[in-house]
Design brief:
DNA polymerase, domain 1; 5 strands; DNA recombination; Phage_Integrase; 4% strand; Tyrosine-type recombinase/integrase; Integrase_catalytic; DNA integration
């Protein structure tokens, strides 16, 4: 103990820390740093509550699986993609301390996915999932290490993509009529998605309190079961035409909390399950088109009416790329949005 600190702390400090020598070393390092800061001044010493310091500090585990669990709990995202990526990577490189993974481990992961026939867009998503977990780990553990997944190249990336198709007006009307007469809650997603331009998770994860049938509005906002993709995704949209009819029928089959309670499990929105169920029908009856094609179709329908681009972005919750100026102000009013969505809907209803 430094002589100038003896009056505050006594001749020495002894603290039982841990039977594990590695854990004990971490505790000792933490306590030493705190004490060094306390007695760095030789004239005025602020005493440290040693017991509280020890009780509040716990050495961090460095295993990839454990740090990944912590990351997923904090992020509250759809856990399926990162868990799939994590499971595959661990099967190839092992569940080790995060500091031990190398560039060769990352390259092995990419080669494995390509050999299994994954498209390059899927490979990139898996890379991004693991990269995010490792970035979090390095930050939390204060590790000065380059992420092995950073700027990782994929041979032929993008060359295996295809342009997503869109629905014709005839297909939309046929699908909407089938949805309303089917008695299937899942099929009602088609007009809800097709006439709002929303992402599937945005509709499947709606709370009843997000829906205002008196004003025919839905409020797309984050909640405990699902987050939104971008800050621009928070928005209010009017329900017009087929969307209004579908919403009225869907609410009749909902519970008091969620619009689609069957897809809210353990406090998480299982949008992927809803997507699989809906796409099974859409692909069969509409030449391979999917739920996400409805979103592309809405953008084309708004373009055809010469709707302003920044209004299109506001309706779909797309990230605006038209410059800083388009983000100024409050944006378009709900009534202005209603006019344009009404015009789009009228084109279908008049068929």
């Amino acid at each position: 103990m430094p002589k100038h600190a003896v009056r505050i702390y006594g001749d020495f400090i002894r603290q039982a820390l841990s039977k594990d020598p590695v854990e004990a070393e971490a505790y000792a390092e933490r306590l030493s740093n705190v004490l060094e800061g306390s007695w760095s001044s030789t004239t005025r010493i602020t005493p440290v509550d040693v017991v509280s310091v020890v009780e509040s500090f716990k050495p961090r585990s460095c295993l990839l699986s454990e740090i990944a669990e912590e990351y997923l709990v904090l992020r509250k995202i759809d856990q399926t993609p990162p868990r799939v990526a994590l499971s595959t990577f661990v099967s190839l490189a092992g569940d080790r301390e995060v500091s031990e993974y190398t560039r060769e481990d990352a390259k092995l992961f990419v080669r494995h996915l390509i050999l299994r026939g994954n498209k390059t867009t899927t490979v990139r998503r898996r890379i991004n999932s693991l990269s995010a977990i490792l970035n979090y780990a390095y930050s939390e553990l204060d590790l000065d290490k380059r992420n092995p997944f950073t700027r990782l190249m994929i041979q032929g990336e993008g060359e295996d993509t295809f342009k997503r198709g869109v629905f014709t007006r005839e297909q939309l009307k046929l699908g909407y009529d089938k949805s309303l007469s089917s008695g299937s809650t899942v099929k009602l997603l088609m007009p809800l998605l097709g006439e709002t331009g929303c992402r599937l998770a945005e509709i499947v994860g709606l709370r009843i309190e997000d829906i205002d049938l008196q004003e025919d509005l839905i409020h797309i906002r984050p909640n405990s079961a699902r987050r939104l993709k971008t800050p621009n995704s928070t928005r209010t949209l009017p329900l017009v035409g087929y969307a209004k009819l579908a919403m009225e029928r869907t609410i009749e089959r909902s519970d008091r909390e969620w619009l689609f309670p069957r897809y809210i499990k353990e406090g998480t929105c299982k949008a992927t399950h809803a997507s699989n169920a809906l796409n099974k029908w859409l692909k069969r009856d509409f030449e391979g088109l999917t739920a996400h094609c409805l979103r592309h179709t809405m953008r084309d329908r708004l373009r055809a009416l010469e709707c302003p681009n920044d209004l299109i972005d506001q309706i779909g919750g797309w990230r605006t790329v038209g410059g800083v100026g388009v983000t100024y102000g409050q944006g378009y009013s709900v009534e202005q949005v209603r006019v344009w969505l009404g015009a789009v809907s009228q084109a279908i209803c008049s068929e």
